[in-house]
Specification:
The chain contains 12 helices and no strands. The protein has 326 residues and is an all-alpha fold. Helix 5 crosses helix 9, helix 8 packs parallel to helix 10 and helix 9 runs antiparallel to helix 10. It is elongated and about 75 Å long. InterPro entries: SpoIIM-like (IPR002798). This is Stage II sporulation protein M. Keywords: Membrane, Transmembrane, Transmembrane helix. Pfam families: SpoIIM.
Length: 326
C-alpha cells in the first residue's frame, strides 16, 4: 500500500487518539484499549513498510503518548507527585521545543537591542532603568560596591519581595499568550532589553566583570525562567492561532494544559533564584571561583532538567511504544 493511501485509511483513528490525549474527548477503557491496539498495529506496519518516514515518526510518537497516557493512570496516587516532575514536565518541554527556541530567540534579540541602544544613545539607559536607579548604580560603582543595590534590605524581606515579583513575571509571560502570543513577546522583549541595558551600564563604567560575576549567581536561573515561562505563553498562542486537525477550542484546551504544566515546572527554579539573589548576590562575590562554581552548577541543572531529561524521557517513551508493538 502506498504511504499516502495508508495515511488516508487510518487518519481518522489517529485524529481520535489525538483528541483523547488532549482531554477534549472522553472514551471508556474498552475504546481506549481498542484505539491503542489499532495504533500499535499501524506502527508495526509503518515500521516495516515506511521506516524512517515522517509517517512512522508520527505514529511512533503518538503510540508512545498513548502508552504513557494509559499507564500513568495505573500508577499509585502516591507516585503522582514524583511522576509529574520526572515525566510530565520534561515531556511537556520535549513536545514544545520550537516554542522554547523561539522564546530564547526573542530574548537574545531583545538583549542585543538593549546593548546596542545603550551604546548608541546615553539617554536610553535612563529611559529603561530610570534616573534614580542609574544614578544609584553609578554611585555604587564609584564607591567600589557595584552590587550595593542588593544590600538595601534584609535577606528575608528581599526573598519574599523578589520571589513574588519573579513569579508574577512568569505567570504574566504565560497568561499573555492568550493575546495571540503578542503579550508574551512583549514581556520577553521588555525583560531582555532591560537586562542588556543593565549589563551595558556596568560595562561603560568599567564594572562588567563584577556585574556578570555577581548578578549571574541568581541571573542564570532567573533569566532562564523568563524564557521558559515565555515558551509556555507561546504554546498557548500557537494553540489559538494554529489548531491543526483540532477544532480551535480543542486546540486551546490542549495548549493551556501543556502550558500550565510547563509554567508550574518553572516555579521551583524561580524560588531558588529569589533565594540566591537575596542571600548570596547581596553579599557581592566573595571569590571568582565561588561565583563561577555557582553559575556553572545552575547552568548544569537547567541544562539537565529542561534539555537532557526531556530528550531522555521522550526517547524512553518512544522505545517503550515500539517494544509494546512486538
Amino acid at each position: 500500500m502506498r504511504e499516502v493511501a495508508f495515511v488516508r485509511l487510518h487518519q481518522d483513528t489517529w485524529r481520535e487518539v489525538e483528541h483523547v490525549l488532549s482531554d477534549s474527548v472522553s472514551v471508556g477503557p474498552d475504546r481506549l484499549a481498542e484505539l491503542y491496539v489499532k495504533l500499535t498495529d499501524d506502527l508495526a506496519y509503518a515500521s516495516t513498510y515506511y521506516p524512517g518516514t515522517k509517517t512512522f515518526a508520527y505514529i511512533n510518537d503518538l503510540t508512545a503518548r498513548v502508552y504513557h497516557y494509559i499507564y500513568k493512570n495505573r500508577k499509585e496516587r502516591r507516585k503522582r507527585f514524583l511522576t509529574f516532575w520526572t515525566e510530565e514536565v520534561p515531556l511537556a518541554y520535549a513536545e514544545n521545543t520550537p516554542a522554547l527556541l523561539f522564546s530564547l530567540g526573542v530574548f537574545v534579540l531583545a538583549f542585543l537591542i538593549g546593548v546596542v541602544s545603550t551604546l548608541g544613545d546615553d539617554t536610553f539607559v535612563r529611559l529603561i532603568l530610570g534616573d534614580s536607579y542609574v544614578n544609584m548604580t553609578i554611585r555604587n560603582i564609584k564607591a567600589g560596591n557595584p552590587l550595593g543595590v542588593y544590600q538595601q534590605d534584609d535577606g528575608l524581606g528581599m526573598v519574599v519581595q523578589i520571589t513574588l515579583n519573579n513569579l508574577r513575571v512568569d505567570i504574566l509571560s504565560c497568561i499573555l499568550g492568550l493575546l495571540a502570543s503578542v503579550g508574551t513577546a512583549f514581556i520577553i522583549l521588555y525583560n531582555g532589553i532591560m537586562v542588556g541595558t543593565f549589563f551595558t551600564l556596568f560595562g561603560l563604567h568599567g564594572s562588567l566583570g563584577d556585574g556578570l560575576a555577581g548578578v549571574m549567581i541568581h541571573g542564570t536561573i532567573e533569566l532562564t525562567t523568563i524564557v521558559l515561562a515565555g515558551a509556555a505563553g507561546f504554546v498557548i498562542g500557537n494553540g489559538i492561532m494554529f489548531p491543526g486537525t483540532y477544532t480551535r477550542l480543542q486546540s486551546f484546551v490542549r495548549a493551556v494544559r501543556l502550558a500550565t504544566i510547563m509554567l508550574v515546572g518553572v516555579f521551583p527554579f524561580t524560588i531558588v533564584a529569589g533565594i540566591l539573589e537575596s542571600f548570596v548576590t547581596r553579599w557581592g562575590h566573595v571569590s571568582i571561583a565561588v561565583d563561577v562554581l555557582l553559575i556553572v552548577l545552575s547552568a548544569a541543572l537547567l541544562t539537565w532538567y529542561f534539555i537532557l531529561l526531556p530528550r531522555s524521557v521522550r526517547t524512553r517513551e518512544s522505545h517503550v511504544a515500539i517494544v509494546h508493538t512486538a
